[in-house]
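Request: Not sure, any thoughts?
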Amino acid sequence: MTSVINRVYKSRNSIRGIYQDYEWDTSTIPDLRPQDLEAMFNVYSTSEQELTAMGDGMVFTLRLPHRFIQNHNLVVLYYNLSNNGSKSSKTTKSIVDKINALYQSNYLQNDDSLLILVNEPQSPSLDKINHMIQHSIRKEYTLSPELDKYIYKLDSKTDTQRYNPSMFRQCVLLSLDMYQINVLQHELVPKHEIIYDKREIKQIQSKLNVTDTQMPVIHKSDIIAKIIRLNVGDVCQIVRHSTKCGESMYYRICR
């Protein structure tokens, strides 16, 4: 059993544990043993150029449907893994064109969001590449008309109209290291809940007597913000527990 297979196996369990609490249907993740994953990896091959360019880790691709938004998926890609024994090379900006090719080939649907896991340590270089991918895939992106009913507007009247357009076709690129355990279950990490609805955010701000610019900030580049997929303008409710004070609520706006 190779170490990369064990790492993929652990990441799948972490993904299942994390995203079931953030509106994604994780029941679509098959419950496979490491031996099953290794067998899939060893026999995987493809003649499709856009898939070949992404490496053999494409056999592990996961598609998590959104529980409330029809035709919207979080697609998990394992990038640059090789089943022929060769070492994975470092992720470079060439991945930008490869991701664009996946959208153009319809391997990815127009509005799909991405979680790309790479088998190398987290670094500022990966953060820069993540920014390049995000800029490129949204440069000429137009939201599919059928999803417009989920977007918040000033005159929104239904609970379904509560999302920020930036949550669609959103890419997060992280090291596979970040998913070896469910970091959100660590005793030192408080519970983070995302508040998308601008109406609810306004109610919280009114209660606290603050504006957007006066609220404490959680940066979009924060690792927890990336893992739970916060977008600029979303508010994160952080629930802290103390033996002296009990449960306390804190609010941070994403910038």
Notes: The beta strands are 62-65, 73-79, 113-118, 171-175, 191-195, 217-218, 235-242, 246-254. The domain at 3-184 is CATH 3.40.1340.10 (Dna-directed Rna Polymerases I, Ii, And Iii 27 Kd Polypeptide; Chain: A; domain 1).
